[in-house]
Structure formats: C-alpha cells, structure tokens
Design brief:
The complex is a heterodimer of chains A (300) and B (138). Chain A is 11% helix and 48% strand. With 300 residues, chain A is mainly β. Chain A has one domain: Porin, CATH 2.40.160. A 12-stranded antiparallel beta barrel of chain A has the order 3-4-5-6-7-9-10-12-13-14-15-16. In chain A, strands 1-2 form a two-stranded antiparallel sheet. Chain A has a two-stranded antiparallel ribbon with strand order 8-11. With 138 residues, chain B is an all-alpha fold. Helix content of chain B is 64%, strand content 0%. Chain B is built from 8 helices and no strands. The longest helix of chain B has 17 residues, at 30-46. Chain B is globular and about 55 Å long. Classes of the chains: A mainly beta (300), B mainly alpha (138).
C-alpha cells in the first residue's frame, strides 16, 4: 500500500468514525448505570491502551483508569484502530478501577492481515483477549516525593492458534507481568508539565501475543522495557512519544520494537482522543509497517 | 518524515519558550497582578459548585489578603505571609484529595479567564503542589 496524504486522511476519517461508534456502543450501558467520579485532575487516568490497561497507546502506565480518588469506582471504555502497510489492529477495552488503587481490565483485539498475504486455509483475522489487573503499590503521579509505582498482570489468550502455531509459536495463552513507574513533572522545561513513564515487562509474547507465545527454540520469559514521554502544552493538549521493546522469539520473522509519536487531546474529564504516527517495523517478515493510530477513551 | 517531525517540535517548543521572567512574582504581574490573580481564584472557588460550600463562612477580605501575601511569598515577591500555617489553616476541615484537586481545577479556570499564560499557571501550581500534604486530611 502506498500511503499518500489523501488516502491517509480518508483512512483517518474512517478510523475515527469506527472508533466513535464503538465507543458510543461501549459507553451507552455504562453511562446510564454510573454517576461521574472525577476527583483527580484531567488526563491523569491516561488512555485505554491496546491491551486495555490504562496508559498511553502502546505502553501501560502506573496510573489507574478513570479519575476517582478514595472512595470511588470508575468505569472506562476505549477503542483504538491502527493501520499500517499490510495490517490493521482494532482494539476495544473496558476497565474498572477502585479507590485509585486497583484496576481490572478486559480487552479484545482483532489483528487483520491484508488480502493475499496468507496461504489459503488461514483466517486473516487473529483475535486475542487480554485480561488485566493492576495494583498501585506506592507513590503518586503528581504529589509527594515518590512517583507512582504499579504492578500489573496481563493474561492473554488467542482465539485461534492455527497461524501462530504454523509460524512456530508454542502456546496460545500466557501470563505477563509488568512494573510501571509514572510521574507528571510540574513546571518542567518550557514551563510545561511533562509526563514520563517507564515500564518493565516479563513476556514471551510474539507480536504482543497476536502471534502466540514462545517458540520451540525459546520458551523463556524476556525482560523488555517500555517508555513514554509527553509534554502538555496545555491541560488539553499533549505531544508525546512511546517506545516498546519486544522480544524476537519466532525464527525468521524479524519482530521489531514498536514506537509512536502521538498528539493527545483531552477536552474534558470524560473523553480523550489520541492520534499517532506509528512505526511497527517488521511484522511477520514484512518490513516498513508504518502508519496511523487513533485511540479514544471515555470514562464515567 | 523525520525532519518534518523535528521541525514541528522546534516550532511548538519555541512557541512556548517566550522570554521568561526570572521571578515568578514579576511574571504574575507584580503586586497588581497578584491582586488580580487572587481575586480571580477566590471568586472562582467561592462560586464553584463542588467546593464553594467550603468558603461559605470565609471572611473574603481576610482570605484574599492572606492569599495575596502567600502567593507573593512563594513567588519570590518579598512578602511575608502573616496567616496561620497551612496545617492550622485547614485543621478540622478534613479536606479530601478530590477537593484539593477541585481547588486546582477552579484555580486553573480562574487564571485562564483572567488571562494568565499556561506557563505562568504551571509555575505557580508547581509551587503550591508541595503544600498538599499540609492541606488535606487535616
């Protein structure tokens, strides 16, 4: 696919429309059942990541979804669409957080391979469920001396193991653990607030689990680092970047680290939108997987 | 792509990095600026639907005078704050984290309405934030 500006814009509009309708569907039942809890400052609940945990687009942060303090319950929904040269990833995520302390999340991902790239007999849609739990163990995103620290688990399960298995993946489900530390630095360079996050994850996922877990040759956990940094030009607008290290477990596929450059718009405590340029490198031996990512998050 | 991103970053950052007044007090506009700031914040918080009730029994003239001193002091304006310390001033109120954040939200709104630039707002809020533990749960 050659990406020209008009096709990119058309793609973005289509992605936005899809995200809006999915988000509306997800939030409709939630909105009627739950009253607003918004004791925290805007944007401090992050976005719903592609794996449904609160964070940036690709990287989980130590923040908990929603904006509740203690006592409080938040229900958050998010959706994202990523379009790169040969693939498309659509995600929806739901999460609930209690007392700014504990978060449970459920994500569904659909990874679609463009027509004609797969041998006959394989479904071109790979789907995965991600069940997440996150516990804030220390510190605070903004206040006090200690930055916010959280520990998380993600249980991932593939719907169908056929393609991943054929590529050499050993398992169709697995558990990953991560630790994240996140801080919003007030009045950083340029008199702006800066968000910095570092995450360490223990994983044996191939392409975040979309291509299964482990391989015949390598079935051990790898420790990978994931970072996000963003500058808030105002409380409503942030510009940031993320880098997500990934193992390269399946032989011959040349799995890459992922990175993105995003703009986030947070017009209210109930809605946020992020648009990113993503560079997913090589996926399944197909190089130059660059494109666009759109993510929306709503909380009630 | 890479160079255009770098260019964009440069433009955005230079737009923020306007000539910086070294002293926050001067950036706030000196005595008149601080007075305008305090009036904006005191009015916005008093009228706030969530935390306005906290100021129902407040002597607004006294409160504004002390807040002017306090902000003058922490912005290096050379004043001395003559009121109660932060713990004493909030004792018995048992303010929650949410109420503290509501105060921050209302202050931001007030400062934006009064025309204070985001950078100046950030500088001031960064100096007020460390006081949170002396304010909440007292």
């Amino acid at each position: 696919m050659t990406t020209t500006l008009p096709t990119l814009i058309l793609d973005a509009i289509a992605m936005l429309r899809q995200s809006v309708s999915i988000l509306a569907l997800l939030l409709l039942p939630v909105a009627t059942a739950h009253a607003a809890a918004e004791g925290r400052l805007k944007a401090t609940g992050g976005l719903v990541t592609i794996e449904a945990s609160a964070g940036g687009g690709l990287v989980p942060w130590a923040v908990l979804s929603g904006l509740s303090t203690r006592p409080g319950l938040d229900v958050v929904a998010g959706t994202s669409v990523t379009r790169v040269a040969d693939f498309r990833l659509e995600t929806i995520g739901l999460s609930a957080s209690w007392n700014d302390r504990f978060e449970l999340s459920l994500g569904r991902q659909r990874f679609s391979v463009d027509d004609g790239l797969l041998p006959p007999g394989f479904d071109r849609h790979l789907q995965q469920t991600v069940l997440g739990a996150k516990l804030r163990v220390a510190g605070d995103l903004i206040y006090g001396r200690v930055p916010q620290l959280a520990l998380g688990l993600q249980y991932k399960r593939n719907d169908d193991h056929a393609l991943a298995g054929a590529l050499g993946a050993r398992r169709d489900h697995d558990v990953e653990g991560y630790a994240s530390v996140t801080r919003l630095f007030l009045d950083g360079p340029f008199d702006r607030n800066w968000l910095l996050n570092a995450t360490v994850r223990a994983t044996r996922a191939n392409e975040t689990g979309l291509l299964g877990f482990g391989s015949a040759a390598d079935d051990g956990y790898a420790l990978v680092g994931e970072v996000s940094a963003a500058i808030f030009f105002s409380p409503e607008f942030a510009l940031g970047a993320e880098y997500r290290q990934k193992p390269d477990g399946l032989p011959g596929l040349g799995e890459s680290d992922w990175r993105d450059l995003f703009v986030a718009w947070v017009p209210s405590k109930h809605f946020s939108l992020a648009v990113a340029y993503v560079d997913l490198g090589t996926i399944a031996a197909r190089p130059d997987q660059n494109g666009m990512f759109i993510s929306m998050t709503g909380n009630w | 792509m890479r160079s255009s991103i770098a260019m964009l970053l440069l433009i955005l950052l230079s737009a923020c990095a306007t000539t910086r007044e070294t002293r926050l007090y001067d950036a706030l506009g000196g005595e008149a600026g601080v007075a305008r700031l305090v009036d904006a914040i005191a009015t916005e918080t008093r009228d706030d639907v969530k935390i306005g009730f906290l100021f129902e029994d407040t002597d607004q003239d006294y409160f504004r005078a002390r807040l002017r001193e306090h902000i003058c002091q922490i912005s290096d304006g050379g004043c001395s704050y003559t009121g109660l310390d932060m713990v004493e001033a909030h004792s018995g109120m048992d303010l929650s984290e949410a109420q503290f954040n509501d105060f921050v939200d209302a202050s931001r709104r007030a400062m934006s309405k009064a025309g204070f630039a985001i950078g100046v707002q950030n500088r001031l809020l960064a100096r007020l934030a460390p006081k949170r533990d002396e304010v909440i749960h007292q």
